[in-house]
Amino acid sequence: MYNRKIIVRLNKRRPLASFGLLIMVLLLSLSLAACSASSATSKPINPTAEVISGSAATVVSPTVSSAIATVGPINVSQPVSQQPKAATSADQQESNTVVGVVKQISPAVVTIYNKANTTATSRGRNINPTQTTPGTRTQGIGSGVIISDQGYIVTNAHVVEGEQGLTVAFNNGKEVVTATVVGVDTDGDIAVLKIEGAVPAVAKFGDSSKLQIGETVVAIGAALGDFRNSVTKGVVSGLNRTLDNSSPSVYVQTDAPINHGNSGGPLLNLQGEIIGINTAVLRSTPSAIGAGSDVAEGLGFAIPSNTVKTLSDQLISKGAVTRPYVGITYQMITPALAGSSMGGGLTVPAVEGAWVHGSRGAGVVVGSPAERAGLKDNDVITALDGVALNDNNPLINVMMNYKPGDIVKLTVQRGNQAITLTLTLGERPKNLN
């Protein structure tokens, strides 16, 4: 058993050979930027980001006898209640809807081939330098989705990491074109590429804030790098998930099967709209019910479409992303956490919102917009411009709607007193992790 969590990035890298076969290599890692802690209902997973090395991938096929069941005659004496039931009209309707979504959007989903250098790094993690000789060129394979008839494609930043040449294949597999990088935001793990000429289809963004847990979703991508435009179906398993205490990012959790090569591919609703960009899976976690570790299944994560659209719009317009900056360390208070004891004489305020406090020092950064606005340790920001902050609508989500220089009104609970503060957002420092 492994006493560690393994979060896996879903693109795939292959060493390039001058003559001979491609050796498939799986690159497994995830990194996230710094900011808020999560809540009890959306508990941080605190993974250790790892690169897991391995040799050529092996495909294990079951024997025919184990894979194919013998079909016998129908037992007419079997009670009707125990016999297989025909699909309901609702099931058939959903199936038809999924088929329609795939027909509509699959032409807009592309496979991205990245010729990269193995010495490249992404947010501090090495691309498995032990796998090949440092400096060896490798071919990474990921997915992307066309979002504009002008040829813009959105994908993950880690898919184009260290790129020294990008090509894009359409879903028919016959047409391959060169792509250029428009902009990359490593903190948000989003990149925008551009191809020239006519595009086969365009996918539109949906509103990820309207997602509901249990809603049916569809993932499309280059599974294992070899199975172009593979389709899987599942449900939204969770919203506003965080994967690390140090990350400002929140994710849509899904049980739709996500595989290597799916990085950058779309997660779609049944209206055929992009509601997320697939980025990671969780493979294992220390057991919460005993010694050892639990092997996780059906834990895929996608960057919400509202975040993707905000980032991609900036990358297209100016080639970079600027983020607003408040200058606080905070934790979202959930109903379960409100009023509870944290130990050491610290009690969580009995109100939902963004609780300003630091685990290793002051919660308000000296000289920050927050300090200038008058925020203090143990304040709870309950609303921003009248929009309530809670576990389902955390501060980081609301901040995506603003830019540096915007002036906002903060509703703050300070002890038993409710006050309003005016804050001018700064620009997030480049060296802030």
Provide structural commentary.
With about 425 residues, the protein is mostly beta strands. It is globular, with a radius of gyration of 24 Å. Strand 24 (about 380-385) and strand 25 (about 385-390) form a beta hairpin. The protein is built from 5 helices and 28 strands. The chain has a domain at about 325-425: PDZ domain (Pdz3 Domain, Roll).
Quick recap of the structure?
The protein is mainly beta. Helix content is 10%, strand content 35%. The strands form six sheets. The chain has a six-stranded antiparallel barrel with strand order 12-13-14-18-16-15. Strands 4-7-8-11-10-9 form a six-stranded antiparallel β-barrel.
Q: What is the class of the domain at 324-427 in the CATH system?
A: Mainly Beta
CATH homologous superfamily placement of the domain at 324-427: PDZ domain
Radius of gyration: 24 Å
Largest sheet: 6 strands, antiparallel, barrel
Discrete helix count: 5
Architecture of the domain at 324-427 in CATH?
A: Roll
How far apart the termini lie comes to 32 Å
* pLDDT averaged residue by residue: 76
Estimate the strand proportion: 25-35%
**Shape verdict:** globular
By CATH, the topology of the domain at 324-427 is Pdz3 Domain
Contiguous uncertain segments of 5+ residues: 15-78, 118-137
In spatial order, strands of the major sheet run 12-13-14-18-16-15
Structural class computed from helices and strand pairing: mainly beta
- How many strand elements? 28
Which percent range fits the helix content? 10-25%
